[in-house]
Amino acid sequence: MYQLTEAGNELGEVCLALGAWGARWRELLPAHIDPYLALWMLTRLIKPEGLPQDRIVVRFDLTDQSNPSRYWVIATRRGNEVCVRPPGFDEDGIVTTDAQWLVRWHTGTVSLGAAQKAGGMTVIASPWLARTLSEWGRLSPFADIARAPAAEAAPRKIPGSLPARLR
Fold it and tell me: What 3-state class would DSSP assign to 74?
């Protein structure tokens, strides 16, 4: 069985600290938004043992210029995946959104309920799946990181702030 060394565990703490810093200072530009990557990362965070049934299939229909414009998340007790072609299983629910709202939900910057209320996401699902999707939107370890104020987030050029070899 593989186990991280003490150095590996310590590096994990560094990576989480960098992730928290990134979540605080992130600026999501349209070029940075990748729906497949967001869904793939989401599937890595879904704990198979916590699923309310053996297999959950959710179709994501993207309304913007995303290509492809349809994805399926399959969560099972044996593992999770994202498909860009119909997986051959009945769908438990459908989420209609655009890539920006999808990423905001995945990163926990907006709850599923708030996204629905704002018209950014539509969910056609049974109540149990809607509750499950709400939980999935809070899985990011950086979901509760407060964003830096916009004025602080703007890049500034400070002459002489970096050593000459780094400029």
Answer: strand
Which token pair is 52?
Answer: 């309310």
Domain that holds residue 78: 29-144
Alpha carbon distance 81, 105 (integer Å): 18
Q: Do 116 and 102 meet the contact criterion of CB atoms below 8 Å apart?
A: no
Question: Which amino acid would we find at residue 112?
Answer: L
The three-state secondary structure class of 138 is: coil
- What total of structural domains would you count in the chain? 1
Would you place residue 16 in the very low, low, confident or very high pLDDT band (cuts 50, 70, 90)? confident
Residue 108 located in a structural domain: yes
Instruction: Give 23-34 pLDDT, tens digit per residue.
Output: 677 776 777 789
- Position 75 in a domain: yes
Residue of 5, 80, 25, 20 whose CA lies nearest to 47: 80
Phi first, then psi: what are they for 94, rounded to 5°? -130, 130
In a domain? residue 49: yes
| pTM check: above 0.85 | no
